[in-house]
Each structure stands twice: as structure tokens, then as C-alpha cells.
Specification:
By secondary structure, the chain is of the alpha/beta class. Nicotinamide-adenine-dinucleotide binds next to helix 7.
């Protein structure tokens, strides 16, 4: 069942707004446009009553927030976590708008979530919760309206239940949700797509700006879906995974781990705890190790003003959503540490989700080679655009990524006649 992710922190709405405003200032965006782009199109909060296995009735709060659909149907994950709340979902929904626009896939931005603790729930309770949630939001989702996907603590099985429940109400419609099991219309390559994207973008940065990933020391915080696949693929590219951490353990090996063994161990034990081949370190030390690439792949808000001056990585690749606070960003910029922003670094997942949706509506299956080739084409094109823009504007990569994304969405709104 869902991975045990512990206390994933709330994505700070102020951080998202600050990042948007920074780029909006750079573009000289009008107040009207800012208001339009900061306000979500639709917010739905629902009550989800669920009978637990012991007969008690518990009421959960569920959210689906559609931020901007100017460029296509809304798209974004579904998170099950005790800290899910309105502000977190809204900020993650807006990130999806910029992410889809940046990589040029014809979709908007949305996010959903249920405030619950899946660690304390049985599989059948999670199934009942999911079906009840779908019954409350089914009128605002759909293959041409809004397409959920997995996020923290949700997985292909949960996507299958969503497809099934939606189908009962609207007929067979696999394109209503992505990240499904492959046997139910899921795409080959979706499971590893976010980690693959992180690796591709890291390698592309190394190729253009250095240090190259071959022989680079890589530190990864978070070893779930994203972190473990990024580790395996970066190792295949020649990088050395010198330290990894999850909610239970942080381990260091200056000679480099065998990433495949690590991933197999973490999958089997649902944790890195007890992995034999490394020295145990504390979580703060992990982030402050000397390395070429530091990849936060777990939490929001882990690089803050309190540790930004201690980071010894040359480049930070934001595999997680919003791992760097605004204050930390400013410190890192001052110190010449590059940050590859989340809306670029982790866009591989939504890109292959888009491929899955395209396969579903065409009723045609792509082979893995096609998925991976098209993923690479899209991400490298987006990466090159961001780097070129940052060099032209003398800005950070984050500001450049937002500039490009905001321009795309603004153009769509203008062409539709909204402005
Ligand atoms: P996951 O649930 O598979 O794994 C999360 C990992 O983080 C686990 O190893 C967990 O132990 C670790 N973790 C949790 N709390 C921690 C803590 N306090 N300290 C250290 N490690 C901790 O989740 P995932 O799908 O890999 O997502 C990770 C991040 O990537 C999230 O921020 C998510 O929003 C983002 N992301 C995921 C996808 C995707 O396709 N899965 C796409 C884009 C962005």
C-alpha cells in the first residue's frame, strides 16, 4: 500500500506566490493578469464519511483545486497525508499550471488531496475512502476536464479504484486518471518517469555547465518513487550515489552505493533502515555533505535560511515540490549554488502522465522506447529553453522557468479573449 512518507511538510503558499511575483515583476505583468493567474478557477472542499473496519464512522476532508485551465484540461496529483489542507493543495495546484506550461504539454494545473493518515488505515479503508472521494468530486473531473494522478501516499492501485468508481457513474473512461497499473491502461515508463526526468535534467545541466554527472557525487534525500529511480538512472549515467536518506535512516558511503541494491532493499523493507553497506549519519548532515549534486526528493521546505549557508553541493536539483524556501533561495543565489527548480526538475512525471492520457484517448499503446525518447525530447527542450532564458535575462533558473511558463499561460488567456 502507500509508501510510508512520514511528515511531508506543507508546501508554503507564500513561497509559490513569491516565486510567481518575482517573475511577474521581471515581466512587468499587469495587476489584472496577476490577479487572474494567482486566483484558482475552482476550489472544491468535500466531506468524506468512511466506515472504518471497526465500525466507527470517520469524516475526512477532501480537496480538489483547479488552478488554471487556459491551456487544456486540469492536471495534477492526489495526495493522502495528515497535513493536506487548502493552502497546500492550492500552492501545489498552481505549481502544476507552471509545470505543464513550461514543458509545453496541453494541460492546465490542479491538485487534490485528502487529510488522512494512510499509515493507520487498512487497504479496504483506503479503498472506501477513495471511492467516497470520487463520488464527491466526479462532476468536476473527467478525461477532458480534470485528470488526477498519484502523488505522496497514493499509487497505481488507488488510481485503478478512481477509474473504476468514475466508470460506474460515467461509463468506461480510463483517461480520467493517470498513473494507473499498466494492465489497466497505465503507460509503460510512468512509474520511473519523475526519477528519470530528474536524472535527465541533471545530466543536461552537467553537460552544459558542469560538473558532468560521470563520477559526480550525488546525495539524495527521500528514497521513494522519485528518489530511488533517480538514483538508479544517475548511477547508470556514471554518477556515484554517496549518500541517501529516508524518514527512518540516512546513510553515507564515500565510495558510492550500488543504487540498484539500495532500491531493491528500500522497496522490500519499505525503508533504508538496516542497509548494511554504509555509515549511518543524521538527517541534517545528509543535506550538508560535500557533493556535486544534492537532490531533495522527499519534503517541501527542507532547505531553509537555517541550513542554506551550510550546503556544500554545487547544484541542487529539486526533485520534491518546493524543497527550498524563499529565504534559502536568496542565500544559495548569493553563494553561487545553482538550483534547478521543481517545475523543471520533476516535470517528467506529468509528462508521461500526459503520454498515458494520450494513449488512453487514442486507445493505442506506446512501447517503452517511444515513451522514454519522447520524454527526453520534451525535457531537454524545456531545459535548454530555461538555461538560455536565464543566461539572456541574467536570472536564476527558477525565475527563468517561471518567466517562460507565465508567458505561455498569458498567451493562452489572451488568445481566448479572457484579457
Ligand atoms: P514517496 O511517497 O514514494 O517517497 C517519499 C520518500 O520521502 C520516502 O523515502 C520517505 O521515507 C521519505 N521521507 C518522508 N519524510 C521524510 C523525512 N522527514 N526525512 C527524510 N525523508 C523523508 O513519494 P514520491 O512520489 O517519491 O514523492 C517525493 C516528492 O516528489 C514529493 O515532494 C512529491 O510531491 C514530488 N513529486 C512526485 C512525483 C511523482 O510522480 N511521484 C512527481 C512530481 C513531484
Amino acid at each position: 500500500m502507500p509508501a510510508d512518507v512520514g511528515a511531508i511538510q506543507v508546501k508554503d503558499l507564500n513561497t509559490t506566490h513569491f516565486q510567481f511575483q518575482q517573475a511577474a515583476d521581471h515581466l512587468g505583468l499587469s495587476e489584472e493578469l496577476r490577479a487572474l493567474l494567482l486566483t484558482p478557477y475552482r476550489e472544491l472542499t468535500v466531506q468524506i464519511p468512511v466506515k472504518l473496519d471497526d465500525g466507527r464512522l470517520v469524516v475526512f476532508n477532501g480537496y480538489r483545486i483547479q488552478h488554471n485551465g487556459a491551456r487544456g484540461p486540469y492536471k495534477g496529483g492526489l495526495r493522502y497525508h495528515p497535513e493536506v489542507d487548502h493552502d497546500e493543495v492550492l500552492s501545489l495546484a498552481s505549481l502544476m499550471t507552471w509545470k505543464t506550461a513550461l514543458v509545453g504539454i496541453p494541460m492546465g494545473g490542479a491538485k487534490g488531496g485528502v487529510s488522512c493518515n494512510p499509515r493507520n488505515m487498512s487497504v479496504s479503508e483506503i479503498q472506501r475512502l477513495t471511492r467516497a472521494f470520487v463520488s464527491k468530486i466526479h462532476l468536476v473531473i473527467g478525461p477532458y476536464r480534470d485528470i488526477p494522478a498519484p502523488d505522496v501516499n497514493t499509487n497505481p492501485q488507488i488510481m485503478a479504484w478512481i477509474m473504476d468508481e468514475y466508470g460506474k457513474l460515467h461509463g468506461f473512461n480510463p483517461g480520467v486518471v493517470t498513473g494507473k497499473p499498466v494492465s489497466l491502461g497505465g503507460s509503460l515508463g510512468r512509474n520511473e518517469a519523475t526519477g528519470r526526468g530528474v536524472a535527465l535534467v541533471t545530466a543536461a545541466y552537467g553537460k552544459r555547465k558542469g560538473p558532468k554527472v560521470q563520477d559526480a557525487r550525488v546525495v539524495i534525500q527521500g528514497f521513494g518513487n522519485v528518489g530511488s529511480h533517480a538514483a538508479v538512472i544517475l548511477e547508470e549515467m556514471g554518477a556515484k550515489i554517496v549518500a541517501v536518506g529516508d524518514i527512518e535512516a540516512n546513510i553515507f558511503n564515500p565510495n558510492g552505493f550500488d543504487a540498484k541494491k539500495l532500491a531493491a532493499y528500500a522497496l522490500q523493507n519499505r525503508s533504508l533502515k538496516g542497509f548494511p553497506d554504509g555509515e549511518e549519519i543524521d538527517p541534517a548532515t545528509l543535506l550538508e555533505l560535500e557533493c556535486e549534486y544534492l537532490i531533495p526528493a522527499a519534503l517541501g521546505g527542507v532547505i531553509t535560511k537555517f541550513n542554506a549557508d551550510k550546503i556544500r553541493a554545487k547544484v541542487i536539483v529539486e526533485a520534491a515540490n518546493s524543497p527550498t524556501t524563499t529565504n534559502a533561495d536568496l542565500v544559495l543565489e548569493d553563494r553561487g549554488i545553482t538550483v534547478i527548480p521543481d517545475i523543471l526538475a520533476n516535470a517528467g512525471g506529468v509528462t508521461v502522465s500526459y503520454f498515458e492520457w494520450a494513449q488512453n484517448i487514442q486507445q493505442y499503446k506506446w512501447d517503452l522506447n517511444r515513451v522514454n525518447t519522447e520524454l527526453e525530447n520534451i525535457l531537454i527542450a524545456a531545459f535548454d529553453k530555461v538555461l538560455d532564458c536565464a543566461e539572456k535575462e541574467k536570472s536564476t533558473l527558477r525565475v527563468a522557468a517561471y518567466l517562460l511558463a507565465i508567458q505561455e499561460v498569458s498567451e493562452a488567456l489572451t488568445l481566448r479573449g479572457v484579457l
